Amino acid sequence: MPKIERGEGEEKEAPQAKGEQKEKESSPEELASKAAVKEKPTPAARKKLIEKLTQEKEEFYDRLIRLQADFENYKKRIDKERQEFYLYALSEVIREILPTIDDLERALEKSDSKDIESYQQGIELIYNNLRETLEKIGLQPIKTKEQVFDPHYHEALFLEETDQYQENQILEEYQKGYMLKDRLLRPAVVKVAVKKKQPQEPEPEQEEDEFPEKGQ
């Protein structure tokens, strides 16, 4: 390549050829287009790529179907275990109550007994046994005697105005309420005291103003 001498003896490169200058001045879009043309896959490579993508799609689809089937089986297994647990818990409760049913059947067989007092004692014994059995399971009655009304555990059937008891105090229980451990089974139905209303004093009648007659 010819050199051009400078005044101080330095050399400088000669101007580049026109073809090289045009190549350097090409835009990035043109360069990218040329690269794409150069890298364009052959029909065999394209076919191989399509087969690979199709195979991957089928593998993913098959995996999805398997996951769905596993999830459905899991749901069925959980439902079955829940049902079995419920039946097991229920059978345990019934097994505890069966002796009380046996006692009631014996009591009914002797219902024509002339000894009323002993018959009544037998019924009370059966009732106590049943109550103790239910308490073992976790059943507890809701307290109402000398208790203040609580809407979370009591249901007011009647309200009685009175000055003998404090307001909202429970006066009478009509139906027992029960808790199963920490869960409310049914509220206690009660009568509640409310403050007696004071009779209102009649308002005094307003006297009409007397106007003097005309002409006086």
Structure overview:
With 216 residues, this protein is an alpha+beta fold. It has 2 domains: 41-137, Hemagglutinin Ectodomain, Chain B; 139-198, Head domain of nucleotide exchange factor GrpE (Nucleotide Exchange Factor Grpe, Chain A, domain 2), CATH 2.30.22. The protein has helices spanning 18-24, 28-39, 43-109, 116-137; strands spanning 3-5, 11-13, 139-141, 154-162, 170-175, 178-180, 183-186, 188-195. It has a 3-stranded antiparallel beta sheet with strand order 3-6-7. A hairpin with a 5-residue loop joins strand 1 and strand 2. Helix 3 (43-109) packs antiparallel against helix 4 (116-137). The longest helix has 67 residues, at 43-109. It is elongated. The N and C termini lie far apart (145 Å).
Layout of helices and strands, plus pairs?
Layout (H helix, E strand, L loop, with lengths): L2 E3 L5 E3 L4 H7 L3 H12 L3 H67 L6 H22 L1 E3 L12 E9 L7 E6 L2 E3 L2 E4 L1 E8 L21
Parallel strand pairs: 4-8
Antiparallel strand pairs: 1-2, 3-6, 5-8, 6-7
Domains, number: 2
Question: How many runs of DSSP E, i.e. beta strands?
Answer: 8
Q: CATH homologous superfamily of the largest domain, by name?
A: GrpE nucleotide exchange factor, coiled-coil domain
Beta-strand percentage range: 15-25%
Structural class: alpha+beta
Stated plainly, the CATH topology of the largest domain is called Hemagglutinin Ectodomain, Chain B
Backbone CA Rg: 49 Å
Q: How does CATH name the architecture of the largest domain? A: Alpha-Beta Complex
* Helical proportion, percent range: 40-55%
Largest sheet: 3 strands, antiparallel
Spatial strand order of the main sheet: 3-6-7
